[in-house]
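dumping this here so i dont lose it
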């Protein structure tokens, strides 16, 4: 049986026999991000951005693994990675992200999320809440010496992800016009996933 067919049948079972196609059941899964670049000494905001991101195909495999067995893989989303893109990219206009991406083109740094970095969000108010909802914020701050370079790509990783570049399962991906982060700046990224 093909994985897609298996997941469709599993989805039907979860919804009491109602037929829910795999593609339809994951179509509403989407993400958005906020980026804030600050002067580390003064706290002055140097750049702010907001946009949507691509949930990649491997995200559904991680979801299926988590549904099957809470002991495998090790975790859901656990890292945010940033990179400088592929050689020859136009840094002001990098290629659009695709849902077939499985790792960054050139990862230079990643941050692990702590329990304080991950919060449920009330979908009606936008406030963080301790009550589980279908919206989760993942926040990472790269300090002055972290993630220094011409950044044009970022993504969330989970499953068997570690501190090692390119490890784990990619969940989402985004390319963007270059953010030139120096060692006198901090970079905060909030990724919001809505299921």
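and the seq i came up w/
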């Amino acid at each position: 049986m093909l994985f897609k067919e298996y997941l469709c049948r599993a989805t039907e079972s979860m919804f009491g026999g109602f037929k829910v196609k795999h593609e339809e059941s994951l179509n509403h899964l989407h993400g958005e991000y906020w980026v804030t670049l600050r002067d580390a000494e003064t706290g002055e905001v140097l750049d702010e951005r907001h946009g949507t991101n691509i949930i990649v195909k491997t995200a559904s495999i991680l979801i299926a693994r988590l549904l099957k067995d809470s002991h495998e893989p090790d975790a859901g989303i656990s890292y945010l990675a940033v990179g400088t893109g592929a050689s020859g990219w136009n840094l002001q206009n990098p290629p659009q992200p695709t849902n077939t991406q499985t790792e960054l083109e050139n990862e230079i740094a990643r941050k692990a999320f702590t329990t304080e970095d991950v919060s449920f969000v009330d979908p009606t108010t936008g406030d963080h809440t301790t009550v589980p909802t279908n919206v989760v914020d993942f926040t990472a701050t790269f300090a002055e010496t972290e993630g220094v370079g011409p950044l044009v790509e970022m993504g969330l990783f989970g499953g068997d992800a570690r501190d090692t570049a390119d490890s784990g399962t990619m969940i989402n991906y985004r390319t963007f016009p270059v953010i030139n982060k120096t060692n006198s700046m901090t970079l905060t990224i909030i990724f919001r996933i809505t299921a």
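The first strand starts at residue 30 and ends at 39.
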